[in-house]
Amino acid sequence: MEQIVVPPREGRAVRVGAGQSLKIVTPHGSQAADFFAYNAADLDEWLSPMHTWVWTRSVRPRVGDVFLSRFRNPMAELVEDGAGGVHDMMIAACDQARYEQFGYEGHHASCSENLAKAMRALGHEVTVTPQPVNFFTNTRVDEEGRLLSPPNPVRPGAYVTVAARMDLVCVVSSCPFDLPVEGWTINAPGGPTELLLEVA
Amino acid sequence: MEQIVVPPREGRAVRVGAGQSLKIVTPHGSQAADFFAYNAADLDEWLSPMHTWVWTRSVRPRVGDVFLSRFRNPMAELVEDGAGGVHDMMIAACDQARYEQFGYEGHHASCSENLAKAMRALGHEVTVTPQPVNFFTNTRVDEEGRLLSPPNPVRPGAYVTVAARMDLVCVVSSCPFDLPVEGWTINAPGGPTELLLEVA
């Protein structure tokens, strides 16, 4: 079994072969894990929540749901959910522009940058940041269609396990979001914390 | 004023300059209009619902909401809604694979193909089908996060108007979806109908 620590606010790429599984753990709880996956044999094929949820008919992943690529091929299945279903697939990956949108000045770490860095280390340039699956993120859509992000209730040690249906390059980012935006709680109030990855 | 008819199951591209507006009409009602928009000066910058709704905090566009690009720049504002808010930004553009997913055999017209054709006619190759805004499409997310597509109530003559905040290339597709999928009503039961575009 391969174990990888994703330090707070950073990202890591990991290869997960078809039939292998990737476990993602938030040891301190309430830490959003932005999850991206690519077909290892064709990096133009990436996991797409929008193509997934029209098939699963659920905007949140549930055990047994299969994540599809933008070409609608099965990429991975959620096989274990030790976080009570508190996941999101709707929030775009944060990026420098997002932090500037909130008035932040200067460079801020972001999931988009973490993805680009992790893929670049493997020799791949990211030209399109895919929509991620955000594990351990609490998001709701109310009856009026409003998007809400209430406080994150995910307990320490919560985890998910996904089983690869094809050879994948996966990237997991410890979301660096730490701005005190009213009604938009992403991570724990104390700031971003590390994630653990296990490939088996 | 420029008027364009989008025939049933087809798509059309139209240039909309900054300060101009684009009106989209469903003369027969209940016809999904897949809407894509690109920065005319940089086709790598396209409208992104996922970047839009984290800012507007609404998964459905409302009058006054500004659609953002994937680089989080303002592209267009919804200035008139003559369809009672029945719009969707979550359903991925249909494509050949979507119809095959439902068991359809042979070629089927699709919004992705319509987009590619319309852009190709302008000399541009589409390598990534952006997530569209689907005007006149009835979609809901329930408390459990389930994605629902109840029957489409949009009346004949319903319309929306968007005002461009930058020079845009817009593509509108008369969604060709016509499969009798249980609980997944997109267009009117009689099949796809034309759309009207007015640039002023």
What's the SSE blueprint?
The structure is a homodimer of 200-residue chains.
Chain A: E1 2-6, E2 11-16, E3 21-26, E4 33-39, E5 42-46, H1 49-56, E6 66-68, E7 74-81, E8 87-88, H2 96-101, H3 111-121, E9 133-135, E10 140-141, E11 147-148, E12 158-164, E13 168-174, E14 195-199
Antiparallel strand pairs in A: 1-14, 2-13, 3-12, 3-14, 4-5, 4-9, 4-13, 6-7, 7-12, 8-9, 10-11
Distinctive features:
200 residues, mainly beta, six-stranded antiparallel β-sheet, homodimer
Structure, briefly:
2 copies of one chain form a homodimer. Chain A has 200 residues and is mostly beta strands.
What does this structure look like?
The structure is a homodimer of 200-residue chains. Chain A has 200 residues and is mainly beta. Chain A is 12% helix and 34% strand. Chain A contains 3 helices and 14 strands. In chain A, the strands form 3 sheets. Chain A has a 6-stranded antiparallel beta sheet, covered by helices on one side. In chain A, strands 2, 4, 5, 8, 9 and 13 form a 6-stranded antiparallel beta sheet that branches. A two-stranded antiparallel ribbon of chain A has the order 10-11. The termini of chain A are close together. Chains A and B meet through helix 1, helix 2, strand 10 and strand 11 of A and helix 1, helix 2, strand 10 and strand 11 of B.
